[in-house]
Amino acid sequence: MDKGLIQQKLDNTFLRRALKNFAAAYPVARAKAFEGMDFEELRGRIANFKGAGLEQLPALVERFTASAEKAGAQVHLCTTPEVANRTILEIIRSKNADFLVKSKAMTSEEIELNHYLEKNGVSCLETDLGEWIIQLAGERPSHMVMPAIHKNKEEVAELFSRETGRECPPDIPSLVQTAREALRSGFLAGQVGMSGANVAMADSGTLGIITNEGNGRLVTTLPRTHIALVGVEKIVPSLSDALDIIEILPKNATGQKITSYVSFIKGPTGGDGRELHIVLLDNGRLQLAADPAFREALKCVKCGACANVCPIYELVGGHVFGHIYVGGIGLVLTPFFHGFDKAEEILKLCIGCRKCNEVCAARIDIEGLIVDLRDKIRKPFGQKFLFGTLMKNRKLFHAALRTAYLAQKPFQGAGGRIRHLPLVLNRETANRSLPPIAEKPFRDLVETGTGKGTGTGEKVLFYSGCLADFVYPEMCQDTVTSLEKLGYTVTFPQEQTCCGIPARYSGEMEVARDMARINTDVLLEEDADYVVTICPTCTMSLKHDFGKLLADEPVYVEKARRLAAKTFNFSELAARKAGAGSLGPETRGRSKTQDAARSTVTYHDACHLKRGCGVHEEPRKVLRELAGVEIAEMEECDKCCGFGGSYSIKYPEISQEVLKNKLENIEATGAHMVAVDCPGCKLQIEGGLEAAGSAVTVEHSATLVARRIAEVKVELET
Amino acid sequence: MVEQFQIAAEAVGAIVKRFTTLTDAAGYVTSAVGVTTVAAPNLPPAVRRVLPNLTLAAPADFAAADAGISVARAGIAATGSLLLELSDPTDRSATALPPVHLVFLDATTIVPTLANLAGLLEENLYRPSPVYLSLTTGPSRTADIERVLTIGVHGPKELHILMMEGDASWTRD
User: Helix, strand, coil: what percent of chain A each, to 5?
Assistant: First the structure.
């Protein structure tokens, strides 16, 4: 990705403010729109009928075509953008027309219709206000629902002044009035009108069009020929399915309960030689629908919610985060609609926080598809040694990490943290200090300390994850201490290795599979009751990814299922034993040694814990009932901290902006400590706070529980 | 349900007036809204009778009319939406071009949610002939410049819903 373009967007104060304001307003409006409704049930239904429809998409296309033709429409199934463009040009020419008046259609952007028609002597007029603005500016939409969100009123005024030849002040109501007047003549003069469609119903051949401005009704009415350009994936079996989409789309898109206009168009109405041409666009969709690994992407209803909640989109906008289609699903659809070469770089922009999955109207695993696509388009290069040789060999990998302990020494400042890395890596430490690799990883400490599995309680295998093992061994020790105090018998299997996520996120699926096999074998060798992790990314990997990665190996499918069933995050398991006196009868109430200020923390939800594992109440229970602290919740507590593993190294400029937002929210609570359940979040947030000179500290929940145990012990002894 | 409809419709900028007789509603149209020339190609005879002084614009002049007048087939309480049957293109122009849109709504046709409208929609869409239906909710709006909500971009700037709570069998004539 063009780093210059990213920086340009990050430096664009209007864009940043506009997107930030929208990101703040959107969840509130959306929640209000869905009030009293069961969002999960509704999107579950949509996921089901869209999924079933896609499995038999060619048949659905046939049914729709038959129904629409019966109603008098002319249906043209076009395989490629070239065919679609030519078909549309021919329809326009057959009417002896040289002018097309349009309402909004993303499919038209997809096939670059305006460009093609203008080249062939047909002028086009976009009448959706946002589309008209970007048509005048010669740009492409930066959002699927709000195409001109990146333009401020001054820029719009300048464009309108140039177009109308009179001075337009940068006043929004008057600019809207200017558009109304300027575009009216276009509607009235239009010989052929074009629209898209939000949904197409196979049972009746009806198109559903959802708009706000009223231009949709005008372009389908005043010109006597109406062309609707519709992606084939928009076809659903029946009217009731379409109503679900009409119900969810405006709420998810803009937080409106419904838009001003929803039109149901079946056939050409009005007689008198009027024509309705439905141009069904394939452009790779039928092939994608036949691909079980990626067909899910076509469930998309194009509401744009994935962009609305994306922390990266919020920083850089749709001209960076996407191609024609933007936001999370834009990243997924681009390789299929526009080629893998267009997608390679943008696919790397996702930080993996899964916010999009949470709001997707069709419950698409957008983040999962992005990760899988990286594997599909991966090109072998320098990462081959890292993933191919080093990580596959556990002893070699761990030996390399030990060597790194020595190599980092010259860069450590007072307190041992790394503040400046040499040369090219320096940007990485610009706004965040890094913790050093520990002299002795946890795996070496186990030899001499606890975690050796003696005891009679339920048996826990502790899977630490690399970051905690090599950077935060004390966090591992605190986990063992806490679990043992809660009555578990804890063992640390020495043969455990990396969970494979770094390899998977870099598109190295073979390596990830190797890791999955090794860890599955190691963690099932002993007949333990639980496998406990303290890194949510590892938890997600063990619980969800191993089964998926090893789906073609029946023996491992079964093993992965067994492993998944007994894998828990620390807080999840600890919460089961939470309650007054659960660390012993003496721990009721607040510790005497804790003053009020110290005992209030704010909690940051790790992306992979909340959205990867569905765990968010348990950590709070652990903090209140086991660690004995109060929680002052921060704004956007479940928004990404900007770590994203290697993301913070690939895109430090973006990562640091995401972090900045997190730090502001933390500081606003007044808490002196941030509790987390993820070593990656700790690394990121702690580094940011330290670089900013803040006194706020970051601790893993396990550490806070262990600290409470130690305090109680001191109190009992004195 | 009538109250719920009114709250939802007003929340999106529609003006809702409740009448028990057509004569009262007619008075509102002429005095309060003050229209004289209207785009109303398929006005029910009963309305025409109580509004004899209105000038009916020819379709070519709809853009210059004071208001469009139509009759809703149903309403949705949850969203304050109106179901309009607009298969005649002149009805579409009449409800889209003038700056004001007046809609008569029989209060007894209001259903709770969009899903409750499925039967009526099916009845219309499963007919063999071409059909154009519209759910209209509030006036025309946009937020395309700096996300600032602005009313009346291409369609009507005002939507007046004349809710008929007395005998409204005439709406089906």
Answer: 55, 10, 35
